[in-house]
Amino acid sequence: MKRALIGIVAVLGLSVAIGLQAQQQPKKNATAHLGTWQIKSYKYGENQQAFTEFPPTERRIKLITETHFTWVGLDAATKKVRSSAGGKYTLDGNTYIESIDFGLEMDTYLGQKHIFTIQMDGDRFTLSGSLADNLKIEEVWQRVK
User: Which residues contact 80 (CB under 8 A, 6 or more apart)?
Assistant: First the structure.
């Protein structure tokens, strides 16, 4: 009887320990999208079969926090900003929805929501979907270290 009671207490203790450990561990990849990113390649429009490498004369950097995103497109030589956008976003599973709340050269998209699928692969992610005007986009981003 004493041995059975010790066994039950041990099992209960182990169950509680496992439960507490599971609660303390963040969801797998729940924050993998956070950070600073640089675009590497893209496909814009319906008819593009292959990705186009982003030109070395330009840079596009994207910053994603827990609640907001901002991207800036700039001339790599002069460091002058050519375009930018930012605002709030939501992420539910792989569904990533951006709301463009401000921008430079983005007048058409201000106040619009854009629905994408995001696929994480280590220090890379692919963003695919359509802008509010139905322009299909697919972008590959690399984490900046």
Answer: 74
Which domain covers residue 55, as residue numbers? 35-143
Q: How far is CA 32 from CA 26, 35, 37, 39, 47, in A?
A: 11, 8, 12, 16, 31
Distance CA 9, CA 7 (A): 5
Element (H, E) at 99: strand 95-99
Q: At CA 86, angle to CA 84 and CA 91, rounded to 5?
A: 135
Residue 60 has which token pair?
Answer: 């596009």
**In the structure encoding, which two tokens stand for residue 137, read together?**
């986009």
Which helix (H) or strand (E) segment holds residue 17: the answer is: helix 2-24
pLDDT digits over 27-71, tens only? 456 799 999 999 999 999 988 889 999 999 999 999 999 999 999
> Amino acid identity of 126?
T
Q: Which residue has the tokens 């463009």?
A: 100
Residue 129 lies in a domain: yes
**Residue 69 lies inside a defined structural domain of this protein:** yes
